[in-house]
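Predict structure. Chain length: 93.
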Amino acid sequence: MKIQSAIAIYALFWVLSAFVVMPFGVRTHDEAGAAKVPGQADSAPFNFQPWRIVRRTTVVASIAFGLFLLNYTYGWVTPQSLDVFTPRELRGN
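Prediction complete.
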């Protein structure tokens, strides 16, 4: 795999991981017992820390990309192994 491809795939894993990680650990002002600013949305996070989300996202994306790279190298899961519509005897396994 070329380095450009690896970087692009890692970026995709990172963005996907950001959407997975973002909702965890976030509390609203009501849940934290803090006063809200007039006009503030009820769902606005209390004490938002973006660098914590970036760190968590990087860890999750690195683990997912590592598993992807190992599968790419060793071929544990192939498209043929995921084919459920072709009978096994016709697949050549």
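Summary: Residues 23 and 53 are 9 Å apart (CA to CA).
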